[in-house]
Design brief:
Length: 573
């Protein structure tokens, strides 16, 4: 259990409609409007799964497609999804959830002892160990322990027919830049399709303070949605573009589809123009035992509080090296949490007024220090700082800057380029028929992002919505981890540590793509969402180079079931 609580007011949930479900056999309760992740947090569940290789306890880390840990086995009537991402699935009555990759339950895993042998099974140990008398002698046992989730051979889910659509403009992402692009396309009389992963339009406007056209950001997004729908724009919610292919063809998986046994439907979309307004993913910080349950991205903590009325901790350390973590800190403090900000920078810019603002609220601000390691075995109990100080805590919110989400751009054979000024990759050359706008393009100022989105769809700048907000977030260059005797986790989903990267470098697997294959950094369904840039920063630090290239991002961006891909095409062809 954790100190996360459901606060009595606020959020988008409907408290008049409680929903009962179970997790690992234990009864839980959430509310209509919850995701599985917010319902688990609201029920006080701290450990939601076990890590891929070492079976270490893991908790909820993110709030969207970037989530590496909260992958669950879901049973809902006839529907069975052995690989459901808790952050994207809506809560429904009677769900039966189980942790994957554990023997027993998430809290009590019979294979947890494997972590004691971690020193003997680092990255690529299997290449060197299972040689004699032959790989086939070990293969069945190893494969039985691997994977995330188990298929039920009796399940015969049907997702229905695929949907096809041809449009003039396909906008992917409904944050400020995406909504501005859709508005501009509609004004030009174009046939527009808008794809949004969440159940509401607005992106960061749903959780961050902003004012647009005289309205709070969330209200402006709702008003804009109404106008777009009235104008004939097709809006796909709970839908993720998972692949961008030749000739501007976009594959989208729609979730929570009525009449589909597995709850999914595939859309195949042809577009004359595509605007990628996919936003950015917050980066973790690297420190010892940073995989403990109770360590979460700061923006995710803000999302759970503002959208689902769940406060993820009561005694909170906010660890950061950029300005974007200060709003979550102040909002958590207003919700009753005790806050200490551990700031890696020696000073904050006086122009932001952040230092004065947090101190006026009674928030402790420790400048020029970092977290060296987490205290606690099965969850956060405190932190050891780089200056030797110890802090008690039950929750650590981390923010190491922002990484533009360029996966779809890369699917279209776009080549991202490193921008040292913002410490992130940005789109390189423009791909025909594809524009990238807003935070996905490394533009973190709200007004500039909206102007860019409108311009991408062909509008003049004076037609862009007017915003009085300043910079929404600041991006920070990735920091190499400080020395620690504890393991420092770079890729949570694939169990890759800083030590694994160091071994790869020592054995001369120091090229970016070689590193990926040697360590499994950023592979499989994760595709490096939270790990890629940090992994490259460690590689650069250990080889004395600058960050220049990245690994190849491949579809699908999120897992898609084979039943959905097959659609109604069954039997022999």
């Amino acid at each position: 259990m954790t100190s996360s609580i459901r606060i009595p007011e606020g959020g988008e949930i409907d408290r008049s409609r409680p929903i009962d479900f179970s997790f690992d056999g234990a009864p839980c309760r959430g509310f209509a409007g919850d995701t599985l992740a917010s319902a688990l947090l609201g029920s006080g569940i701290r450990i939601v799964g076990r890590s891929f290789k070492y079976h270490r306890p893991r908790g909820i880390f993110g709030s969207g497609a970037e989530e590496p840990n909260a992958i669950l086995d879901l049973v809902d009537g006839a529907r069975h999804d052995p690989n459901a991402r808790a952050t994207l699935e809506p809560l429904t009555d009677g769900l039966r959830l189980r942790s994957v990759h554990s023997r027993g339950t998430a809290a009590h895993d019979r294979l947890a002892f494997l972590d004691r042998f971690a020193r003997f099974i680092p990255a690529a140990f299997y290449y060197k160990t299972f040689i004699w008398p032959g790989w086939n002698r070990y293969e069945d046992s190893i494969r039985a322990m691997a994977g995330l989730g188990r298929l039920n051979p009796k399940t015969r889910a049907w997702s229905g027919t695929h949907r096809h659509e041809s449009v003039d403009l396909c906008v992917i992402g409904s944050g400020a830049a995406g909504l501005a692009a859709a508005q501009a396309g509609l004004r030009r009389g174009r046939k527009v399709l808008l794809v949004e992963e969440q159940n509401r339009l607005g992106g960061m406007l749903l959780r961050r303070a902003a004012e647009i056209d005289g309205m709070p950001g969330g209200e402006w997004a709702a008003s804009t949605e109404h106008k777009l729908a009235e104008g004939g724009v097709r809006i796909l919610k709970r839908s993720t573009a998972f692949g961008l292919y030749d000739h501007n063809s976009v594959a989208v998986v729609e979730k929570s589809v009525a009449g589909s046994e597995n709850g999914e439907r595939i859309w195949l979309i042809r577009a004359h123009q595509i605007v990628l307004a996919t936003g950015a993913i917050e980066r973790p910080l690297l420190f010892g035992d940073n995989d403990r349950p109770g360590v979460m991205l700061a923006d995710a903590a803000l999302t759970y509080l503002r959208r689902y009325a769940v406060r993820a901790g009561s005694n909170v350390i906010v660890a950061t090296d950029n300005d974007s973590a200060y709003e979550p800190a102040m909002v958590l403090q207003a919700a009753g949490a005790k806050i200490c900000i551990v700031e890696a920078r020696n000073a904050l810019s006086p122009e932001t007024g952040l230092a004065e603002a947090v101190r006026k609220l009674g928030i402790e601000l420790r400048l020029g220090t970092q977290i060296a390691g987490v205290l606690g075995k099965n969850g956060v109990e405190g932190a050891l700082l780089s200056n030797g100080a110890r802090l008690d805590a039950d929750f650590i919110a981390v923010s190491g800057g922002w990484t533009p989400s360029l996966h779809l751009y890369c699917h279209a054979k776009g080549k991202p380029q490193w921008d040292a000024r913002i410490g992130a990759f940005r789109p390189g050359i423009k791909m025909p028929g594809i524009d990238v706008a807003g935070a996905a393009n490394g533009v973190f100022d709200l007004g500039a992002a909206m102007t860019e989105g409108a311009a991408a769809a062909g509008a003049t700048t004076d037609k862009a919505p007017k915003s009085t907000a300043k910079t929404m977030v600041w991006s920070a260059p990735p920091r190499a981890p400080i020395a620690s005797k504890r393991r420092i986790w770079v890729d949570l989903q694939n169990d890759v540590t800083v030590k694994d990267i160091e071994i790869a470098v020592r054995e001369n697997f120091a090229a970016v793509e070689h590193l990926k294959r040697y360590t499994t950094l950023g592979m499989a369904v994760d595709q490096g969402k939270t790990s890629n840039v940090n992994g490259l920063a460690v590689l650069a630090a250990r080889t004395g180079r600058d960050i220049t290239g990245t690994t190849t991002f491949r579809p699908p961006f999120v897992p898609v079931s084979m039943a959905s891909i097959a659609g109604c095409e069954r039997g022999e062809l």
